[in-house]
Every structure is written in structure tokens, then in C-alpha cells.
Amino acid sequence: MGERTEFEPGDKAPNDGEYTEVGEASFHTEINNPKRVKLKKGDAFPETTNKDRKWKKLTKARVH
């Protein structure tokens, strides 16, 4: 089983890094001015801008 890539507010960060908001269908939906946070391993994710968004590590959030 693979590592989780999307996280909800209140989840703990699995690794140090920069995380950004993504939409439910981030491949098709571009978010204008998404929130970005820098977290240390074990830090809790903050609230997102709306309930349909999740947090994703910045390097994995890029659209190809």
C-alpha cells in the first residue's frame, strides 16, 4: 500500500515540507491563489479555504 498524498485539516504532516491546497479534481481544476504552508513532521494541517479542498505536498501537487 502506498503513502497517502492528500490530507485533511487536522491530519498530521508525515514529513517536513511545503504543502498547498488542491481541489477535489485538482487535475482539471485550477485554484486561484491556493494557501501554502510549511510544516514540520507531526504538525497539524490548518483549515482549508473551503470544505472541498485538501492539502498536498507541493512537489506532488503539480499538474503534468
Automatic annotation (TrEMBL):
<dbReference type="Pfam" id="PF14168">
    <property type="entry name" value="YjzC"/>
</dbReference>
<feature type="compositionally biased region" description="Basic residues">
    <location>
        <begin position="53"/>
        <end position="64"/>
    </location>
</feature>
<feature type="region of interest" description="Disordered">
    <location>
        <begin position="45"/>
        <end position="64"/>
    </location>
</feature>
<dbReference type="InterPro" id="IPR025549">
    <property type="entry name" value="YjzC"/>
</dbReference>
<protein>
    <submittedName>
        <fullName>YjzC family protein</fullName>
    </submittedName>
</protein>
